[in-house]
Fold this protein.
Amino acid sequence: MGDPQRVGAGALRSVERILRARGMNPQALPELGDFDGRTRLQQTDARIPPRYRDARADHPTVLEWLREVVAQAAPANPGARPQVTTGPSLLMAGVTGAGKTHQAYGALRSLIQAGVAVRWEATTAADLYADLRPHAGNDAERILTRVARVPVLVLDDLGAARTSEWVEEITYRLINQRYNRMLPTLVTTNLAIGELRGALGDRVASRLAEMTERATFEAVDRRRLRPAA
Ligand SMILES: Nc1ncnc2c1ncn2[C@@H]1O[C@H](COP(=O)(O)OP(=O)(O)O)[C@@H](O)[C@H]1O
Ligand SMILES: [Mg+2]
């Protein structure tokens, strides 16, 4: 992972530097915002798995994505908070444990901290397929429509599930709808870009190639890194 400072400072980073220069703790950033901002971040954190509740995005490509999505956010009505409309997507590719999911949740948290109103969903591809498999009592079309239309979607571990025609078709329908609507999607995958084509077909790979910016990760499994005793 490169040095985030090299790609220029985003708004959040600038604020953090100012806070540090004044001896304040940037972690306390939301506390300094209005009460609504703090409440919103707390509400977001309640939906984030505990492991990633303190995640901070610092990957240069993820920060670049954040800047673009914040720049494109627009209020629905005059005076309303800006909300996520359309924007680029991200494809985060790297080995297991590289920090992809951490960056995805960190990016969500940064969006909220930046004051953007964002409806979001996060799911692993495997969990989504499980939710969509026909079984009594589930309305698969409704679930698919929800994740296809939510303004920001984290689709974690794409290409990791066993592939079948059904998996390929569902993935195509999801990605195609988000591609058409230009909705920001944070995709993580263990596969190399070329392997995604083999796993999910050309229709999905081609759309991802056009709609995503690529964030690559150092081939280090952070879960197996232990600090020196
Ligand atoms: N930038 C980071 N700072 C601190 N811990 C991190 C960072 N990135 C990842 N981790 C931790 O490393 C482990 C693996 O990260 P994770 O995002 O789950 O990897 P991946 O999704 O690539 O398999 C997790 O315990 C996560 O909390
Ligand atoms: Mg992960």
